Every structure is written in structure tokens, then in C-alpha cells.
Amino acid sequence: MRRRIPAPAGRAVPGAGAGRERTRMKDFDPIAGDPITVLLVEDHPGDARLVREALRDTRSLQFRVVHVTSLTAAIEHLRGADVDVVLLDLSLPDGAGLASIVRVRAAAPRVPILVLTGTEDEELALHAVRGGAQDYLVKGVDAGTLARAVAHAVERHRMLLELEATRREQLALKDRVLSHVSHELRAPLHAVGGFITLLVDGLAGEVTTAQREYLELAQRNLDQLARMISDLLDATRAETGKLLIEPAPFDLAEVLDATVSSLRPLAQTKQIALDATLPPRLDAYADAQRVQQVVTNLVDNAVKFTPEGGRIAVVAEAADDTVRVSVADTGVGIARDIAPHVFERLYQASRGQRGLGLGLFISRALVERQGGRIWVEPAAGGGTVFCFTLPARTPASPHAAAPAPW
After folding, report:
1. Comparing 105-109, 290-294, 360-364, which segment has the lowest mean pLDDT?
2. What is the DSSP string of 320-382?
3. How far apart are the C-alpha atoms of 359 and 235, rounded to whole Å?
4. Rounded Cα distance, 152 and 154, in Å
5. pTM for this structure?
6. Burial of 277 (0-12, 13-18, 19+ CB in 10 A)
7. What is the C-alpha radius of gyration for the chain, rounded to an integer number of angstroms?
8. pLDDT at residue 155, as a whole number
């Protein structure tokens, strides 16, 4: 939205001092008469005076205006005081145009920003909003419109925060329910699995070849059900940031070799060759059990989308201060328009495939929580390659996950 507020030119005036408390969205009730605290970042005294007067003359709402004349002073104030909304001039002497929005958001990510500018530029307005501003105000607007723009920005932001809080509460409730249900289900599942093992081992009598095949099929389906329950729990905990990760130094090559060996029977159900190319030793710093879970998810996904007689190759190697693992298949491949979505929760490239669509979502969460990154790319000659990296040693500081190639 483009609006106008008055803008006579002038020289800068000294900025206000910083407050003492940590910046946050202050609780206020306009109906009860609580004032809205506005941080005005404007170096022209005439512009600042007119904004103050415009907000003071509004009878339906009360405003408390804190005025600073530089971006540096604004950031200092935001780090220590309660603010409801920022009115930010993009032409500050120490500012950098649209980059000023980024700096303000970094200092106070939960405070809405309204941009002030003397330029009526549609493209600039679009970039400002995309950069994180709530609204774009062109200098020259009347008092009522300015006041409403400020109040609406605060209210929109408040509603967003309330929605986020509600979503967190819902996820926490879902986590508690799933934890209880999974606990109640696991006991009978373990009991059924135990009885199947007794039958397969012949402890209840001789088992024919056909009966053994049926029992092994029942065990595989039981294992799949147990994995689904675990995936539901992990997916919810990934959303709430409660995934349990216990990183430690370990030999990645040894873990991958054991994981691939355990997955070969799954690949053999479709006559798929599953091979691993590993160095004698490959040191990594991560949660070995969670890495095994990621590789299992990736191989399981590859088996689903690789036709009978295909091939899956697991490769691991050192790469500077990280280790890189890839799982390549000779399957149907992934279209470029689908690739950015495969790590989304509940996403399934094919409706005909079994499962909940959580494996890749969980894998991304597990890798990124351990300071790595995960991505997908086309394989040479067809098929798909899923790759992920992990720290090779204890990280000095938390890693920021880099974007995937697609």
C-alpha cells in the first residue's frame, strides 16, 4: 500500500536514548487507552515533527513516539526497549536503503516495520515488503491514514504472533497425544513380533517353507508399522524443535557398512543391487543412530522408486571439514519442479507409493540439526542422487544450513 506523509527538509536532531528492557511486542489494548509505542527513525526534523503531530492529533488511538535520527541509534534502542512498531526512513545518512530493513529485523525480528520514503516507487515498495516491511508509506499522508496504518500494522503482527503461539500449543498437544498412543501401541507390537519370532524359530512346531514366508512378510509389515509410529513422533518433534540429537565422534564408514548390510534384504525384494563404496575409516561428529536413520530413509525411498533389477549405490567420502554421503539410484528420477518440495512434510511424488511421506522431511531435520545440509540432484544417465553432509569433527560454532542446489 502506498500512502503519503508530509516531508519538509531539515537537519538532523539528536536521537533519543535507549531503553532498559529487551525489545519485544509490548502488550497494549487500544480500546482501553493503552498507547502504541512508535520508534520513529527519521533524520529530518521537519518530517519527524509532522509525524509526531499527526499521531498526536489522532483522537481514537494514543501513541508514544520515541525519535532517533540514525539507523545506529535505532538498532541500539531496539536491543533494549519495548517497541510496538518502527517507522523507518530509508534515506538515513548511515543507512543503506532496503538493507536498513534487514538490519532492523535482525535487531528486533518480532517488531513490525513501516517504511517511510519520499519516493513514490512501486518497485521499491514491492522490494520493501518482500524484505520484511509491513507497509510502505510515501511522505505526504494525512494524520488519520498514518495512524490507521500504524495501528493496523501492529494488529496484523499481533495476530500473526498469536497464530504462531496457537500453532506451537497445537504441536505440543499433538506430541503429547502421539507419545501416549505410541507407548500404548508399542507393547502389543513387541508382543506380536516376539510371537512371530517364536514361530519362525520353530519353537511352536515345525514350520513349512510357505509358512515361513508368510511369517517373514508379517514381520516386515509389523516393522513398517513400528517405523510409521516412530516417524509420526519424529515429525512432530522436528516441527517443535524437540528432536533428540546426541552427537559424538564415530566411524561413519563402519555405521554405513552395517546399515547397508541390514537393508540389503529390503532391496532384494525387488532384485535391486545395493552396494556401498566406503573408505576403511571415515571420522564424523554426529549422532550415529540418527545418521543410520537418515540413510535408512534414503535407501527405503530409493527402493520405492527404482524398478526391479535396478541399482542403488551408497558412497561416503571426506570433504574438507565435512563428510559427504550420497545415495544414488537408477530409478525414475525427480522432475526439477518437484525437487524443491521432496523434503516437505507429507509430500509424496506419487500417490501410488505407500508410506506417510515423512521420511525425507525427518531426514532434512536430522541432518540440519547436526550442522549439515541435504539436497537432491539428478543422477548421470538417469535416476536420482540424494546427498547430505555432516561435520567431520566437533564444530567450533553452530553451522548454518546452506541452501540446496535446487
Report:
1. 105-109
2. TTEEEEEEEE-SS---TTTGGGTTSTT--S-TTS-S-S-HHHHHHHHHHHTT--EEEEEPTTS
3. 9
4. 5
5. 0.56
6. exposed
7. 29
8. 81
